Amino acid sequence: MTQEDLRNLFSSIGELESCKLIRDKLTGQSLGYGFVNYVKSTDAEKAISSLNGLRMQQKTIKVSYARPSTPLIKDANLYVSGLPKSMTQEDLQRIFHPFGRIITSRILVEPSTGMSRGVGFVRFDKRPEAENAISSLNGTIPAGAKDPVTVKFANNPSQKNQQVLQSLYAAASPTRRLAAPTTGPLYHQARSFSDLLSNVNMGLGVKRHLPSKCAGCTAPSAASSSCAPNYGICIFVYNLSPETDENILWQLFGPFGAVTSVKVIRDYQTQKCKGYGFVTMTNYEEAFLAVCSLNGYKLGDRVLQMSLTKPSGAA
DNA sequence: TACGATT
């Protein structure tokens, strides 16, 4: 939605004094909210009663009175993971409401099934309420659940966009390409990697740095995995260096076939890779070959290990 | 830091 869309929608109620769509500072992308001032307060009331809850495309818009702008309401948004799949938004609110006024909350779902992904968000009115919720709830086990939940401050959308831009820049940067070839790990990777691929393409056995039993490949029926089985095969990759970025995973797995997503798991504070990541591939045969080929592959000074992700909830 | 998930 553009600023103009916002203006058109809300000016249909009454005369506007001002109207502002909030955008990311770097990318200019809408952050999904904005502020509208009406000349007459009765029009503001009308806007809330007629537009709140309106469904637009995939979204349900929320319209309410803006809270007074103060530093206290900033950074009060929490990210919650490890929730039982059976937990509803109402359950989530029940758990968090003792700590303060909840502005919004939601549980993320798999689009295809509507099933909970076990993660969600809770935005409190005030920062100290959010802090209290973290210290009281993080690591605790909800009633009736068997695993503890993680409660922490949510990532800031502009931080996330910065990461994406940096990663794109790093991939495209000529200095990076010139600096790497003779000494960097990418050079060594590229040479031995192409050897490896030519082996694969000729249908020959694959050299490995470890005597590999192809972990995770022994039971092809285990193709179902915790990560979106409808969307592909999810591969767990371990022993990545702290400097690993998404591009490296794309480069490693892309030649084996269709890769739908890659994820480097990072420490939130340092933004360094925690040593592992995930790659989702569309086709089982290609994923199988990638795991068999890349397990034991030496990237820089590290021997990679990989397997299909641990199935979840299987008896 | 051997299984994430960021509206």
From TrEMBL:
One annotated GO molecular function: mRNA binding
Domain of life: Eukaryota
Coiled-coil ranges from the UniProt annotation: none
Keywords from the UniProt entry: Nucleus, Repeat, RNA-binding
One Gene Ontology cellular component: ribonucleoprotein complex
GO biological process: one example: positive regulation of signal transduction
Pfam families: RRM_1
UniProt-annotated location(s): Nucleus
Presence of the UniProt keyword Transferase in the record: no
Repeat listed as a keyword: yes
SUPFAM superfamilies tied to this protein: RNA-binding domain, RBD
Main location: nucleus
Ranges for domain RRM: 1-68, 76-156, 233-311
Family stated for the protein in its record: Belongs to the RRM elav family.
Record protein name field: RRM domain-containing protein
Organism: Ciona savignyi
